[in-house]
Amino acid sequence: MEACAFTGYRPEKLPWRYDERDERCVALKRRISDAVEAVYNAGARHFICGMAKGCDTYFAEAVLALRDEYPDITLEAAIPCETQSGSWSREDRERYYYILHQCDRQTVISRDYTPECMLRRNRYMVDAAQLLIAVFDGKPGGTMQTVHYAKSMGKEVVEIPVEETGEE
Predict the structure, then answer these.
(1) What distance in Å separates the CA atoms of residue 96 and residue 84, rounded to the nearest whole number?
(2) What distance in Å separates the CA atoms of residue 110 and residue 98, rounded to the nearest whole number?
(3) What's the pLDDT score for residue 165?
(4) Per-domain residue ranges for the chain?
């Protein structure tokens, strides 16, 4: 295995929404970090992130933190369209650009937003990776579509459920 992609929920689908201090969010970030380290130990060196708010951000930050320890890690931003963060809050845009500037590679799927650009971004990530890490517990939407696509392509999928409590 060389490359690992990621999919997961945006804050609106998480029980704590934007409160990253919530114990459940802290626990989820820990599970994401553990999964990233496990796939690194299994041979992944290239990580691909869709750069959305929420779980994508947690994933990218986990990869960057692990890269401090293992400099052979690379992070790719798979950007659905150039205006992805255009309507976000100033704080969210600053976080996005901070991560983006630390990426080793940026792949822009579409110059402008189109109804298909998110789907095309998700498929690009799955096609480019051998493994998909997914924060997923069955909710319909883009994450579910990406998980189903990865499985249909014979890719290994590591699912991390969203738990209602921070207890392990």
Answers:
(1) 10
(2) 21
(3) 52
(4) 3-160
What percentage of residues in the chain have a pLDDT greater than 70?
96
CATH node for 3-160: 3.40.50.450
Within its chain, how far is the Cα of 30 from the centroid?
14
Question: CA 87, CA 69: separation in Å to the nearest integer?
Answer: 34
CA 126, CA 8: separation in Å to the nearest integer?
A: 13
What span, in angstroms and rounded, lies between the C-alpha atoms of 141 and 60? 21
Structure-token match 């971004």, residue found: 121
**Maximum CA extent, the chain:** 42
Please give the C-alpha separations between residue 97 and each of 88, 100, 102, in angstroms, as whole numbers.
Answer: 12, 5, 9
Mean predicted confidence (pLDDT) in 61-85? 97
Residues counted in the chain? 168
For the entire predicted model, the pTM comes to: 0.95
Q: Look-up: residue for tokens 């493994």?
A: 131
In tens, the pLDDT along 90-128 reads 999 999 999 999 999 999 999 999 999 999 999 999 999
Reduced to 3 DSSP states, what percent helix, strand and coil does the chain have, rounded to the nearest 5? 45, 20, 35
> Tokens representing 42?
């299994």
